[in-house]
Design a protein that fits this description.
mainly beta, globular
Length: 274
């Protein structure tokens, strides 16, 4: 039978609110490898402030949390959150997967940014970010949450950034990167696929999974052009409506007021049996 890697995205949706928050948890038997969120507002006001792995009551990272925030005008919208999990079967027997989440937090500033390194010996599969803003109003939002890629083409860490909008609103940003590993009898390899949008007013990008045994384990999004008025509104898996299979990764950003055209890059993390 050989080695079979399965990945699933479990979805939760927050009710329509001006500051939506949501969590979703994996069922037993799955290991968390990534996650995402999609702010469903069509306007410019509500964007993401958090999209990151979270622990259960036993201290195990097996869920995903997300939050949005409006600024200026009230913009109550639903928020979808996705937890991506995998399980590996070898000759009909489940394979044990170890997991470790590494994190780092920035200083409290108006334009926070931070990167975290993946520990040696771990395979990077995904990551996330949380903008821990200081005030309940104004607007410090996420602008990026994306993988750092080493000289070998593999994930070596994760980077995240936020930015204030309209008014002074300092924040600390936390970046998370997820690593996994298995025993010597099962070798895994992760690789990155990416796609960058054109420069537009409301850019979005998606990256598709190539055919084969590759499965989407995680992903992220990086703004293509710097700018004060750009914010992250989506970084999430693409799910087949026919069989529930993960087929790629989607990313989008919103602009505030009359920001210049900009771009965004979507990253998909593919996991394969080496």
């Amino acid at each position: 039978m050989g080695i079979v890697i399965e990945s699933y995205a479990f979805v939760g949706v927050a009710t329509r609110a001006t500051g939506p928050t949501a969590q979703v948890w994996l069922p037993p038997g799955f290991t968390l490898t990534g996650g995402g969120a999609y702010d469903m507002g069509r306007g410019t006001s509500n964007t993401l402030t958090a999209c990151y792995p979270t622990r259960n009551q036993c201290g195990v990272y097996n869920g995903w949390a997300a939050a949005g925030r409006d600024f200026g005008l009230a913009d109550p919208v639903p928020l979808a959150v996705y937890a991506v999990g995998i399980r590996i079967i070898r000759d009909g027997v489940p394979v044990k997967i170890e997991q470790q989440v590494f994190s780092a937090t920035s200083a409290l500033i108006s334009d926070p940014g931070v990167s975290v390194k993946l520990g040696a010996g771990w395979i990077g599969t995904g990551g996330g970010a949380q903008d821990n803003y200081a005030t309940p109003i104004n607007g410090n939002m996420l602008t990026a949450s994306y993988p750092l890629i080493g000289a070998d083409g593999n994930i070596c860490g994760w980077s995240a950034s936020g930015r204030e909008h309209d008014a002074l609103d300092q924040a600390r940003v936390t970046a998370f990167v997820i690593g996994i590993r298995t025993g010597p009898d099962v070798a895994l390899a992760a690789r990155i696929v990416s796609n960058t949008s054109l420069l537009t007013g409301y850019p979005s990008a998606l990256v598709a999974v190539p055919h084969g045994n590759a499965v989407v384990a995680g992903g992220g999004a990086l703004v293509g052009e710097s700018g004060r008025n750009t914010m992250l509104s989506a970084s999430c898996p693409i799910i087949s409506s026919q069989d529930g299979r993960l087929t790629g990764w989607f990313a989008a950003r919103k602009v505030q007021k009359s920001a210049p055209p900009s771009g965004i890059t979507a990253y998909g993390v593919l996991l394969e049996a080496a």
